[in-house]
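Before relying on records like the one below, remember that each one covers exactly one chain. Contacts with other chains, cofactors or solvent are not represented anywhere in the record.
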Amino acid sequence: MARKATYKGTIGILTGGGDVPGLNPAIRAITIRAIREGYRVVGFRRGWAGLIDIIRDKKHDNTRNFVELSEDIVNKAGRTGGTFLHTSRTRPSHVKKAEVPSFLQEKYNEEINDLTEEVIRNLEWVGIDFLIPIGGDDTLSYGVHLYRKGIKVIAIPKTMDNDVPGTDYCIGFSTCVTRTIQHANNLRTSAGSHERFLVMEVFGRYAGFTAMLPTMAGAANRCVIPEHEFEMEHLTELMSYDRKKNPSNYSMLLVSEGAMFKGGEMIFENATTDAYGHKKLGGIGDLISAELKSWSPKFNDGKSVNIINQKLGYLVRGGDPDAIDSIVPMAYGNLALDLILQNMHGRLVVLKNGRYDNIPVDIVTSKKKLVDVKRHYNTERLRPYFKSFEMQPLFIMTSEN
């Protein structure tokens, strides 16, 4: 029988932002190792939202906000996608008046309210010694804010866009690329059967990694990304060339949701914004499809080419994690525990140049991680460069220079 470890403290975990496969394996890894090392583990529900409306009364039922985690709970969830703790895009430092919890509305009644004081008091009330937020640059930027306020934060990078600075890899990226390639290959049969252009829109607000890597892997002929504005006539000419060269008379394009026409702007579904000021992107694939058909007669003997237009959306972030998004989260979770056992905090666990490491968490707010267009993207051919692979990281263009 294993010796019961002496109690060392309480660790809090939360997941924020978009869901991705790999979150539950990360929670599992943290919890199992932490319990065996003598820590109590608390999972906060709905990301930062679970920390703003806790009622600090031992008699009150706060199970909607947090739950004590056990090996049984995390083992069951650890093999699945999504996050069983749930998630949100709440930003406690910028809470709209209508979203302030009812019992706090007398104290916080501005149009935008900073509830950080409540978050810190709630963490103290629950007894959290270390806090591990798992998320993208938005979620982790608030983690940086808390760290600067004195909370012991250790961050884990998660985003299918793979755009958290300081790390080569963010949880969710590999499964996203895998799904994109799978769906592209499935749609390929329809594109070939009807001799059409196939346009697939994928996530990627500011960074084009989710379009670049599948294109490099052969999922598409061309891709357009947020880091480079493109001309529609030029894109149509390239797509038409690919179509004529293909024995099955079709060609394929991957479109980052944040891609922009030359001289244009990002395309949004509507004007509403989330707590981090982001409008919901979507629609650039529709516009490109319409423009491709309009321009196509110029490069197809005066005849229009029909389009298959598919927004992959949540299809690439749903379901179970692939092998990499099962292994990396396990390692990240254990890295976080290594730091806690050394009483280190204010760190971001990372994968850099093929090695696991940790760096100051402040990097999350100090820079942006984008595709290095000059190095990795051929702006004339609208696709990745296929050169200089020696000593590159696993996912080629995800390493920062």
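The chain has two domains: 9-171+321-366, 175-313+373-384.
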